[in-house]
Design goal:
It is built from eight helices and ten strands. With 306 residues, it is of the alpha/beta class.
Length: 306
């Protein structure tokens, strides 16, 4: 009689262990822990290093080239988007390159374009990103100009940072932004913002904007700014504005991404985030998000001379 309860306990324990293992594997899969780096980006001549910097009341993220021997680990940016990076790794002995300043979309965070920053760092380029205070603000010219001025302060702080200053070539800067961050990057580069002045930074010599709203700009005449590269998905309503800008802005180039929506320019999502946020994370069957990211990175590197 005593063997029966013992046999039951063994079976119950085995079942519980099996459930825990299956549950643990499902959780790991949902969090993206089985995602390979090749699913996110290619390996470059450097590892992608990153650290958070506090300069006075300004907090910003720096991505930089690290030695290839640095241990890159899988990370989840904003708990949703996957990357591979070596946090607080040493700075590699890389030649100086122009600085890239990244600007996130409305109410997002400085980590939104980490997928691009990692690619640039792996190619020897330093990039920086800050958080913008967007809550309860209107997406108008005043906010675009305010954001541009804050980005300008971040550029100053990066150029004064002793650990990366030697890796930045002169004061030549390329501005990149997504959505309203693209609007910010264009303002920083010198596009005329209605009702605003002093938004630009003359150090910015190139600009790449992905899916930018363009309503804040006065486009009646040619802007006193470098010709931008604008990426726009053909399934995004903002693509019409990008085409209108290209028609009025000498030298501007629009890269149309077939079937892509507004959020294709956000990072590769974890399976769990994909299930919870399909609008942000799921693309049309014909769209490869990683390939789109590679194309954007190539456009930025082209402006840097690659």
């Amino acid at each position: 009689m005593s063997e029966e309860p013992s046999r039951f306990r063994v079976k119950a324990t085995a079942s519980l262990v099996a459930l825990l293992v299956v549950g643990g594997l499902a959780l790991a899969f949902g969090r993206g822990l089985f995602t390979r780096r090749a699913d996110v980006r290619d390996v470059g001549p450097y590892a992608a290093g990153t650290r958070t910097v506090q300069a006075g009341d300004l907090t910003f993220e720096i991505w930089y080239p690290a030695p290839l021997t640095s241990s890159e680990a899988l990370v989840r940016y904003e708990q949703a988007h996957l990357g591979y990076v070596a946090r607080n790794a040493p700075v590699a002995d890389a030649p100086p390159r122009p600085l890239v300043v990244l600007s996130h979309g409305y109410t997002a965070s400085r980590l939104e374009l980490a997928w691009l920053a990692e690619r640039l760092a792996a190619r020897g380029v330093v990039s920086i990103a800050i958080d913008h205070a967007d809550a309860a603000r209107e997406m108008d010219g005043a906010l675009a100009c305010e954001r541009a001025k804050k980005a300008r302060a971040a550029i100053d702080a990066a150029l004064a940072d002793p650990t990366i200053r030697a890796k930045i070539a002169g004061e030549r800067v390329v501005a990149v932004g997504h959505s309203f961050g693209g609007t910010t990057a264009l303002a920083l580069a010198g596009a005329r913002v209605r009702g605003q002045a002093g938004c630009d930074d003359p150090r910015v010599r190139g600009v790449v904007a992905t899916a930018p709203p363009l309503a804040p700009f006065d486009l009646q005449g040619p802007p006193a700014a470098p010709s931008p590269v604008i990426f726009a998905g053909t399934s995004d309503s903002l693509v019409a504005g990008a085409d209108a800008v290209a028609a009025r802005w000498p030298g501007a180039r629009v890269v149309r991404v077939p079937d892509a929506g507004h959020f294709v320019f956000k990072g590769v999502c974890t399976p769990y985030a994909t299930a919870r946020m399909p609008v942000v994370c799921k693309d049309a069957a014909t769209v490869r998000r990683r390939a789109v990211h590679d194309d954007v990175a190539a456009a930025v590197l082209a402006l840097l001379g690659d």
